[in-house]
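for the writeup, i need someone to sanity check this before i put it in the appendix. the sequnce is what the collaborator sent (i think, or maybe the updated version? ugh). structure was predicted straight from it, no edits. if anything looks off just tell me and ill rerun, i have time this weekend
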Amino acid sequence: MLTRATIDRTVAAALEEDAPWGDLTSEYLIVETAQARADLVAREAGVFSGGEVFAAAFRLTDPRIEVELVVEDGEWFEPGAVLAVVNGPARGVLTAERVGLNFVQRMSGTATLTGRYVAEVAHTKARIADTRKTTPGLRAFERKAVRDGGGRNHRWSLSDAVMAKDNHLAVLTRTAPGAWGASVTAALRAAKDRLPHTAHLEVEVDRLEQIEPVLAAGVGTIMLDNFSLDDLRSGVKVVAGRATVEASGGVSLETVRAIAETGVDVISVGALTHSARALDLGLDVRIDAS
């Protein structure tokens, strides 16, 4: 989903925001002929993500700037590692530095956090997935970072699948006749009958007794939201392979291993994108002592 067109459009907007009338500091302090060579250096360990985005910041600022990516997206690195080398007109390098760093630090931070979650559940069948809790306008970037960290992407947008959550069901049960179970089953079946055969149907439940009425509609995925560990185990037994089981809510690095060990298929984690901190990376200009 992260195409070159998306990268260029978003990075160009960021550069325009950061230097709408040029970089006064570089233009007034740095001679036009000056050249700069700089290393993108890791201050801490992590997973690299956003190499092409980082490079785009320099390419769009000055096409004469060359960026060599030393590591690939998805690769773990240690403190002190050189991740990329930038070489070209100094004014352009200094102008693009902060925008390039902002993108690569944020994406690498998301990839690193995702990688930690993935490592916690590696001994189980559970997959770690993101959610729609992304920064508006940056979904493609953040979801690319999740993939680089070894995670999976959930539905891309509201247009991609039917996902009936608690608020949908609350409205539905007020407007549909009959008891909760019967009315929900009938409504979900009717929706499924109208859906294209390629569209996926997922439903969120927050109590064990809601599982059977939802499964009776033939849903593809059932989300167990904020279930206790005991209820997750019970829910997996009730579903018994009739649908993909997704766990959501209350997921952290401290809890994800135990959640995965209940037997769920997917664990969705909003924190991958809404709470990942930027990784500490720096752009160090090389000084030629000669």
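The mean pLDDT is 94. The chain has eleven helices and twelve strands.
thx in advance!!
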